[in-house]
Amino acid sequence: MKQIKFLVILFFSMIAISCEKELDLEPQQSISIGAATETPENINSILLAAYDIGRNTSPDNVAPLYNGNYSGELNIVSELLGNTDQVSWNGTFANLSEIASKALLNNNASALNIYNDSYAIMGHVNTVLANLDKFDDAAERDRVEGEAKFLRGLVYFDMVKLYGQQYNASGGNTQLGVPIILTPPDITIRIPRNTVEEVYAQIISDLGDAYAKLPDTNDARADKYAAQAMLARVYLQQGDFTAARDAADDVLQNSGHELTATFAEAFDTDDNTVETIFSWIINNQEGTNLTNTHYATEALGGRGGDIAITQDYLDKFDSDVDERKNFNYPGEGVSTGLTLTSKHTRQFANATPVRIAEMHLIRAECNFRLGSSVGLPPLDEINALRARSSAPALGSLTLDLILLERELELAFEGFTLHDYKRTQRAIGGLPFDDNKLVFPIPQSARDRNPLLEQNQGYN
Fold first, then answer.
1. Residues 8-56: pLDDT tens digits?
2. What is the Cα–Cα distance from 132 to 152, expressed in whole angstroms?
3. What is the rounded CA–CA span in Å between residue 157 and residue 175?
4. Range with the lowest mean pLDDT among 15-29, 50-64, 363-377?
């Protein structure tokens, strides 16, 4: 009998996110495909397991099964590889040191872990999508399909930005992305990498379906506005400013989310705030917030400031009363002399939040580029966001000022690499499309699948 052996399915009794009740199913060493997918309850368990892979979790306090892309790994690699003058790397992990110095090897552990975890999530998601016929309730079936496609679209978007060159808004995106796999796990599958154009088409299709299928609210799990917020992010990365503006405007007008009263209230929370559109739930029973691990002092649960703020970054602010400039604290102990961000000070805070502030920045940038004022005129929108942090109003706008506001608002949240690439700015002295700014396809994946062509520079 064929066996299904991707690991998290074997742990149906794990809680996938904190709002869910514990699943009453026995873990097994292997389980037949038929048994694993025979009921709606089992399909829901597989979906919950897909969420769980995104976090750094482990059963019974043993070593984590997965690294946790969305526990902070994707944030960290973007900030280190995209760093120009914003942060300093003070840690000792070889994989992150390679990324910080922009000198990755083809066996880099972060590149391997992110790649493997991404396809593990999609293995679960594809199994869910292949078994939607188990649901008799149409609303539940739509919700499950929507969540699964949200996760798949999200994961492919984060993969193609790291393992492929930047999308070119003028077309011709034949550069290699990652393999698109839409079927349940099968160890015999051998397919080559799809183009960046093909991967983006799949992402938009999945997130569009998720938006159509998901409810307006869905507790701590993805809802339709989480899908629309991700579409706004995708369209912006593509340079499709009209679609990005309209998606962001939909979220701003209809999701019910709004800016928190103060900048500080948006971060390091045990529960999602009114500003949080979606996040990965972490608590002291499950998960590790890796951003806290690498950004915080030992007293706050971190390693003592592996990643610290530079004076060059602080000098980007035009006002000393801007709360964002002062949202940091001095290191102590091994981090004495370092300035550390206050965005990642709670050890069990929710991870990788999608914030409504990002939607304001997307709408403002796209309106400015298009000469439109959908929702708000760009200057009014930027000034409203600055006012939340007590920064003085600007009298006029340029594109450079809007991009600077984005950098000041979203710093240390995983945007730096991708924002600099899409705007074609140099990164750490390298052109935005330098081969050193693209992750290698893990050599172990290429050993299993000889059809996977390696990125340039990693032979």
1. 433 333 323 333 333 333 344 456 677 789 999 999 999 999 999 998 7
2. 15
3. 15
4. 15-29
Angle of the 224-238 helix axis to the 196-213 helix axis, nearest 10: 160
Cα four-point dihedral sign 110, 314, 381, 349: positive
Contact 166, 421 (CB under 8 A): yes
**3-state secondary structure string, 101-127?**
CCCCCCCCHHHHHHHHHHHHHHHHHHH
Q: Which of 326, 288, 283, 328 is closest to 305 using CA atoms?
A: 328
Backbone angles phi, psi at 285, to 5 degrees: -95, -30
Identity of the residue numbered 304: G
Q: Give the angle subtended at the CA of 31 by the CAs of 28 and 35, to the nearest 5°.
A: 120
The token duo for 252 is: 């701003």
Q: What angle do CA 23, 26, 31 make, to 5 degrees?
A: 115
Of 55 and 287, the structure prediction assigns the larger pLDDT to: 55
Mean pLDDT, residues 206-223: 97
Q: Describe the strand order of the beta sheet including 307-309 as a list of residue ranges.
A: 87-89, 307-309, 339-341, 328-330
Closest CA to 278 of 248, 249, 257, 262: 257
Residue type, 329: Y
- pLDDT, average across residues 94-120: 97
Q: What is the mean pLDDT of residues 142-164?
A: 98
Closest CA to 424 of 88, 179, 170, 231: 170
* pLDDT, position 57: 64
Per-residue pLDDT averaged across 404-429, rounded? 98
